[in-house]
Specification:
With about 130 residues, the chain is α/β, with parallel strands linked by helices. It has helices spanning about 20-30, 60-75, 80-85, 90-100, 115-125; strands at about 5-10, 35-40, 75-80, 110, 125-130. The chain starts with a strand and ends with a strand.
């Protein structure tokens, strides 16, 4: 029986294991034949969407890994717009609206409201939080 999963990630890309563990679970969900409908990055998890991360060459690039996962498996990557703006993770649209000099949201991520999270809570068979 195939299930639909959604992930909520509260941990940053680096500094804790939360996001890296979530990435491993995301791969396992897909490899297990299930559907991963979306990933919602919330609180410090929005740092996973920053285009300005630059891990050392011998370190795992988690931001790039999320982008590849989304592209290859058609998984939506959402960041909480309020949490992202507070933490300086800004899309082109928000940079323009807020009068900021630049944006830094990585390609493949979109800023969304909590309504997107609420919808996934209602439509997914399983929601996992990290």
């Amino acid at each position: 029986m195939s299930l639909t999963y959604a992930l909520v990630i509260n941990g940053p890309a680096y500094g804790t294991q939360a996001a890296r563990t979530a990435y491993g679970v995301a791969l396992a969900v897909i490899e297990g034949g299930h559907k991963l409908s979306q990933i919602f990055f919330y609180q410090d998890g929005v740092h996973n969407a920053s285009a300005l991360t630059a891990p050392a060459s011998d370190e795992f690039d988690l931001v790039a890994a999320w982008q590849t996962l989304a592209s290859v498996h058609q998984v939506e990557l959402h960041t909480c717009i309020a949490a992202a703006l507070r933490r300086g993770v800004v899309s082109d649209i928000e940079a323009s609206q807020e009068g900021l000099p630049a944006s830094n949201m990585a390609e493949g991520f979109t800023q969304s409201g909590l309504g997107v999270l609420a919808e996934s809570l209602l439509t997914a068979d399983r929601v996992l939080q990290f």
